[in-house]
Amino acid sequence: MAGKLTKQEKSWILYDVGNSAFMMLATALIPVYFASIAEPGSSVVVAWGYAETVASLVLALLMPILGSLADLEGNKKKFFVGTVGTGAVALAALGIPSTAIAFLIVYVIASVMLNGSMVFYDAFLVDATDEDRYDEVSSQGYAWGYIGSCVPFVACLAVVLGGPSVGIPMDAGMKIAFLITAAWWVAFSIPLLRNVRQTHYRQHSAHLVRDTFSGLARTLGRIWRDRRLRLFMLAFFCYIDGVHTIIKMSTSYGTDLGIDSTQLVLALLVTQFVAFPSAIAYGRLAGRFGTKRMLLVAIGAYLCITLFAAFFLRSAVEFWVLAVCVGLFQGGIQALSRSEFGKLIPKDRANEYYGFFDIFGKYAAVMGTLLVSVFTQMTGSSSVGVLSVAALFVLGFILLVKMPEAEG
């Protein structure tokens, strides 16, 4: 159901523009900067992997609990402010540590706060718009996030890579990049804080701790007993695992094939630009043909992308084709997954449910990357490793087909 966006919907969408800048920086530049301050001879990959694992574990432990507390009247915005504020300060401070360990500690704090804020942000969807507009608004969020993140990222690239030519050392350029990205993140969180209020909530309880943990147990029970929700979560775990694996492994796979690093970075930017109109279009197609049907189309498309990567990807030209194809479906499958989940859950427990949803999405990437690594090592062929990801899309497709349609 397309239509003119309301002030609340626009304000909600803008936060995707803000947080996506940090995600781009963390993907492309922060690991490179970390390598420059790590001690010679140390394993940068291992240290970075441990940092990401710690951040994920902290999120897994905290988010369902904080999500449940945030569902109480007046709490959602407080938790959102806390995570964004703390995360932005930590991000801006990343230029201060001079040792690798200190840098990783600050990075883990920033990463946990970023991903924590996303749980509250996702849950604000049920407050910012009506259920029949979830697909449209969620898709707009991803779309503007893709294109918006490119603005500060290009500015950061200019400062970091072009800085030495005007007398700004690369390490000083990275410190400026941290400040630019933190300021961008905060600036685009303000509209949501000003214009979106929590309309779905639970009343405060006299037995807060006991009710919080018993509520989490009941939520897990409801997810398992509700056949639609259970099958959707299992399907989501499989296919989003495949999506995240392609995102995470594409650069290393391209490098393995001998594709120039400049080509890889440019292809990443092209994916972002293609994803902008595609995500919007996908949200509108969902309004016409149904969310589930469009999710199945996207899963089928990703299966074809995986087969293309395994059998035909051998040159830079083919990598560019892959980047464009990924951009066509990446935003759509993520946005519609978020909106479809919102339709399946009780609105007064949105934070609690989205806490589990985001954990499923975050931990899903483990299985796919493991499959790629194991099959590549067993066969000596990265193409076979990539092909193994196809099984995740097939399984996700089957589970989603089995999910019953809504009653009525």
Structure overview:
The chain has 408 residues and is mainly alpha-helical. The chain folds into two domains: 8-196, Up-down Bundle (Growth Hormone, Chain: A); 225-403, Growth Hormone, Chain: A (Up-down Bundle). 81% of the residues lie in helices and 0% in strands. It contains 17 helices and no strands. Helix 4 (76-92) packs antiparallel against helix 8 and helix 7 runs antiparallel to helix 12.
Key attributes of the depicted protein:
408 residues, mainly alpha, Growth Hormone, Chain: A, 17 helices
Q: Kindly report the name of the CATH homologous superfamily of the largest domain.
A: MFS general substrate transporter like domains
Question: For the CA atoms, what is the radius of gyration?
Answer: 21 Å
Tell me how many strands there are.
0
Tally of contiguous helical segments? 17
In short:
The protein is mainly α and 408 residues long. Helix content is 81%, strand content 0%.
Strand and helix map with partners:
Elements (H helix, E strand, L loop, with lengths): L6 H22 L1 H8 L6 H27 L5 H17 L7 H24 L1 H4 L5 H29 L7 H18 L2 H6 L12 H18 L1 H30 L4 H29 L1 H21 L4 H29 L5 H30 L2 H6 L2 H13 L6
Helix pairs in contact: 1-7, 1-8, 3-4, 3-5, 3-10, 3-15, 4-5, 4-8, 5-15, 7-8, 7-12, 7-14, 11-14, 11-15, 11-17, 12-13, 12-14, 13-14, 13-17
